[in-house]
Amino acid sequence: MSSSSSSRNWRYDVFPSFRGEDVRQSFLSHFLKELDRKLISAFKDNKIEKGQTLDPVLKQAIKDSRIAIVIFSENYASSAWCLNELLEILKCKDEFNQLVIPIFYNIDPSHVRKQSGDFGKIFTKTCLSHNKTEAEIGLWRKALTNVANIVGSHPQKWENEAKLIEDIINDILVKLSLTPSKDFDDYVGIEAHIARMSSLLHLESKEVRMVGIWGSSGIGKTTIARALFSRLSRLFQGRIFIDRAFISKIKVDYRGANTDDYNMRLSLQGNFLSEILGTRNIKVDHLGAVGDRLKNQKVLIVIDDLDEKVVLEALVGQTQWFGCGSRIIVITKDRHLLTGHGIHHIYEVPLPSGKLALEMFCQYAFKQNSPPKDFENLAVEVVRHAGSLPLGLNVLGSSLWGRDNKYWIEMMPGLRNGLDGKIEKTLRFSYDGIDSEEDQAIFRHIACLFKFLNRIHIDDVKLLLAVRDWSVCNGLQRLTEKSLIHLKYDCVEMHCLLQEMGRKIVRDYSIDEPGKQEFLFDSKDICDVLTENTGTKKVLGILLNIDEIDDYDELCVHESAFKKMPNLRFLKVVTSKNEVRLQLDKSFDYLPPSLKLLSCNFYPMRCLPSKFRSINLVILEMRHSKLEKLWEGDLSLPCLKEMNLGGSEDLKEIPDLSRATNLETLYLYGCSSLVELPSSIGNLNKLSWLYMPGCKNLEILPSGIINLQSLDRLYLIGCSKLKSFPDISRNVSQLNLSGTAIEEIPWWVGNFKRLKILDMESCSMLKYASKGEWQWKQTKSPLNYQVANPWSVSLPYYFAPQVDFRKCINLDLEALLQQQSVFGQVMLSGEEMPLYFTHKAKGTSSSLTIPLLPISTYPFIRLRVCAVIFSRSLGAGDIKLNCQFKDRLGNHSDCSAYQESLITFEEGGNLYVFDTCFYPEKEDIAKLNFDHVDLQLHFTPICGDSASCYLKEWGIRVLEDNSSAEKQLGDPNTLSHVSEADEDNMVNEINHSQELGTRNTVLSLGLSSSSTFEDFGDDVNKRKRNSETEEEHGRTSKRIKTFLELEDAESSNHSKSILISKPESSKRRRLSIENNEEKSCFFLPGLNMTSNEEDETLYGTTVQAKEAETRPDNS
């Protein structure tokens, strides 16, 4: 660009000139979005009202733009505004050497140049309609010709619009002398960070905006900030990047002074102004100097690695100090510094994904995006060790660059056991920056606790760290603000490198005397402390992996080893081997009462020490122990949340747990000697998980278990002596009774309103699914189940759980399928399609066509579907059922598909049964008269191939509701159309129907044999609307009475269900009278019923009326 052009203070990089109706919603929107992504500032005219003359704001915007982009389109010349805009652009081109780039969007450049073709006709029309003089028309023509002669972009030269925009953006960058810096070429993912920052910076706004970049040490904050500074500097009159060295240099002269020292603040401001204004040795005598000097300047200020608020207050204390459009970017590990200064536009820098982290590492280690052959697994392991932290990827990748495979292999053991010095030094700054000793202690505890627990819940942290006067909640919040931990999904997360650093700090405190360390992790150190009795009161936690002990066949613990560690809170002994290597003397009788976590696999004693006091215990885990009982008597367990005694085959009794009022999970799997649970378990009001698979001698559960209102999951897998279905809380969501001796599932299982999974696999004694009828209800409907009328907000939602009946060899399959229960998903064993299913098809992706009756109030179809899946081994797959409603002409309406993923199948034949309901789009109801549906089922195996796991056949049955009228009232799954009807009677009734303008109302009621139809007619008359006459109601009552008299006397003794509805378009009523043997349907004129959502008693018969939308009757 020329010197005169580059010396101007440009406000915008780009001014786009365009015809909105042609490109605003297409090309222009994509173009502006890409400009924003590249941090190229563009003028946007969204708020300007256009007329024939140019707005002064628009004229100024053209003058303030380095480059004008003229987007010629078919209707560009139809706007006098656009043509005048073009004149102003050429004026600025001549006066300020402004650059002009034309884009010919779906138009021939020669037509613009010569004002010919359709473009020329539109131009002529514009000239005439605005009464322009020849001179004015000449100026327009000259402008069009001059700009069209400039080399520009034409979409026909590119494969697609995205490529066109990319090339235009690159051309703009070159013309702005903004060729992307190569300083950040090896930083993979930088463009994504810049794009996210672009939206926060909102560069087109005139406001002074402060934006924060926040994240942990080593995550790449400074790199992002420097890339931004490089890209943005050109847009501002003044610019400065303040790093730690800038601040430290000033602090040297004020060593020992208070951080809030007045003179130090003045010195900070003086050096700051000297740098940003390019003037040496500016002296400042008051703290308002920054505002005095910069209030009229548009400046860019970046403050990196901020850790003191005094720097913010001194240099960027108020937004009023800076000119319009200024941007201040503050980078810190401490979020509180940002929010405390009123900075709420904050970008939290995320860790890169696994794929991106591997690419970043490979750039450092191999100078390419992927690892070479023979380095794939090694590269993945290094990235995993670095925890995807960009600093770790950089340091480790750079150190391995140019090294051969042998060097990598020899380096790996040291990498696994230690922390690189450069990484540690950077991360240590974060720890040293923690303000209080209490917060540092909480950090060390959390770093070490991750060795004890795989997952740390916030509530567990509060309980485990509840000591002295610690404010754990506030400490967690402060550590979060400093990016040392993250709180997600109610759990505490800490980066693996920070964990390593925290544990190294603990170890380095007393490396020569491990008995004085807070936490012990080294197996040799622990063996020395436990065998030689050298522990001290400083020891808070011990984690021993017995598998790491090479010199000892068994670990013999000194009988008084724990007496010297009275403050021990965390004790965990683990092993992957199925053997006892921990030896305790018979006289061993002491564990510290301070213990909060006690975990010991293969504990060798028959009982815990008699003197053990468990008042502080939060987690008790004694898996595969030799315990026969835990302790004698009733102990206070106010803090206990989790008890895991799984695999303890000798355990014969569980102690009284009535005082463990906070217990939430109880694991007793594989406790094969356990015969019963204590009755006190009924007092555990917070118990949510009871896990007892393999308790093969358990015969009955205590009656008090029904009181466990918090119980969510109960697993009794393989409890082979359990014969009765457990009478438990109705709030349970997962119930696994597979492999039990249960013979029947009681009807009251339908009251389990939250039940999602009922597993009865391999219940060989099971004969009946129930003698009654199941019907599960839930306030929210799952995604894979639709109610009959999706447009009616008044209907309740119904939901059925997943049920597994595989290998239930005595189960009456046909009886199960005949039930009127709503199925969610039912798994059964079998290789053949049950006779129950009336429509069948073979093979994957086959289809079925099902006819619809033309008398539906609104069309929908409710189905029971069965897929026969054959698998040669344990497999899994996805099932998808598509449905289209069609009319005779082939017009169709697509429905939301039923889809279920990751369904597991056992070896052999599997029957997967489910209920679903389909309905067309509401807007299609008025346009189309559907007469059939096409169904297509797809099965996709997830593991294995189509030969080892495949769909053999599938079938459906259209469901009809033969239940009582009372059940119809509240059940949205009740069919609103009748599948068996007397079509002749229906046609006769249609021919005699009257057109009456009324809304749709559905009335369902049951009539006993003792009810007279005159009674019914009287009630109808009572409910009539003002617009209907007594005569019309009389005719209606007479016609219904006549119908009933025609019925066979025997059939009339059965209970009947009557459905009256009024399709909106035909304004007729439809009467459906149903008994146990047949259904008939009539359209009735002159019958109006008011809508009533409450049940009323009508002559001993339940009556309910509901509003419902229905499709027009096109019959």
UniProtKB/TrEMBL annotation:
The keyword Repeat applies. It catalyses: NAD(+) + H2O = ADP-D-ribose + nicotinamide + H(+). GO terms for molecular function: NAD+ nucleosidase activity, cyclic ADP-ribose generating. Residues 1016-1039, 1052-1075, 1092-1115 are annotated as: Disordered. Keywords: Hydrolase, Leucine-rich repeat, NAD, Plant defense, Repeat. Coiled coil: none annotated. Residues 10-176 form the TIR domain. SUPFAM superfamilies: L domain-like, P-loop containing nucleoside triphosphate hydrolases, Toll/Interleukin receptor TIR domain, Winged helix' DNA-binding domain. PROSITE patterns: TIR. Its EC number is 3.2.2.6. Residues 1026-1035, 1106-1115 have a biased composition (Basic and acidic residues). GO terms for biological process: defense response. It is an enzyme of class 3 (hydrolase). It comes from the Eukaryota. Pfam families: LRR_3, NB-ARC, TIR, WHD_ROQ1. Transmembrane segments: none annotated. This is ADP-ribosyl cyclase/cyclic ADP-ribose hydrolase.
